[in-house]
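Sample A.
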Amino acid sequence: MKLGFLAFLVIGTVLIIRQQQAMPYQHDEGMVFGTVYHIAYQSDKNYKADIERELQKVDNALSMFNQESVISRINRNEDVVVDKMFKEVFQLAERVSQETDGAFDITVAPLVNAWGFGFKEGVHPDQHTVDSLLHIIGYEHVKCQDDRIVKGDRRMMLDCSAIAKGYGCDVVARMLKKKGVNNYMVEIGGEVATAGVNDQREPWHIGVNAPSPSGDGDSGKLQAVLKLKDKALATSGNYRNFYYMGGKKYAHTIDPKTGYPVQHNILSATVLANDCATADAYATAFMVMGLDGAREVLEKHSELMAYLIYTDEKGKYSIWYSPSMRQRIIEE
């Protein structure tokens, strides 16, 4: 009797596994947050309509290009009750700001705009302009109280662009999990959330772009390929976002403390975390903190891993990564 039941159990398990392996992978793509998304997931049903509904919710909360979004209304000082998504992102941003001593700061919007990297075209600000804007920068001067954002100064503006794509990945990932999807890869503008395995029954393979030899962008080649399973990844890189003015190279990452674009040696920071919004925020923070600052934070947070591309003292490209990252590197 027991042997018969055991045989039935084994056969049933084998059939379930075969059925799961035979289930097709869906592939959806589109535009969101001004960039492209690609999503692959194993399911008999296509969920693109559901995916885009979830992404629209994120846009309605966090997009500075959407004039009716929660963040746009906050920046106009309207009396608005924040929704669950905005509150979740705000609280995460606050925690990361505290953990990075303000290197990550969503109040940096006025400086971003002044330097011309935000939603307005700016000009090279002078020292007086930078100093005046620093008076309205600082995550500690804005709070969420009774589901409303309270600013220390009405001129303060919020910018969640350094966390929104990662959060969008998380939102879609949660939706797929609720639908019973166990294997998926959600990618929005280079930020990635994964679970399970790909259609080859292997961990998801995610590439890290290599800088070009001339230093004027990414080379189109991969510096490394990482294997991800039930992890999220985000990358922030200065070699893809900068401009020259007056013979100087200005990166797109602004240091909230100095008011100027960072001049650190990190060219790109790729961070692995349990959720993509967290990875996104820390990747931006590491670009501000530099190699030594990033390593100090990583020593305190074992749940994070990083793959950092930087220039050494001789100006050559070098790599540093968390010891625990070694087992995730497929090729270099």
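Sample B, a different protein:
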Amino acid sequence: MSPASAAAALASLEIIKAEPARRERVFDHAERLHNGLRALGFATDPSVTPVIPVHVGQAVPCLRMWQALHDAGVCTNAVVAPAVPRGRALIRVTPQATHTDEQITRILDAFAACGRRLGLVPERAEHDWTPVALARPKLTP
């Protein structure tokens, strides 16, 4: 590891310890996005991190969804084979502590509009989904 990378990692750890509200906020955003996406009909996996995997399936619809979200101003990552098995393509959503509540709403609105336009989610959200509660590890002093 280069000295600059080591210094950046140490500085990050100091911020995590000094500003725990940032961690809480990013986990709050991740839970809201997880549950909002599930309510819309998207398949997400529970996660121990704020990164949210949104399963799409085939690569072409996944890339179309990624492009539609990009065009709507939402930054995500498409993950296709060989990074994941064929037929298991997904969109990764990574909320930040610096996102506002309004931006989280915009992300959910964009997923709803793009997902419906591309036929990835139903016009009407199903009411049978399991809420996600992310584990929030405690930091030790």
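Observation for Sample B: The longest strand covers residues 52-57.
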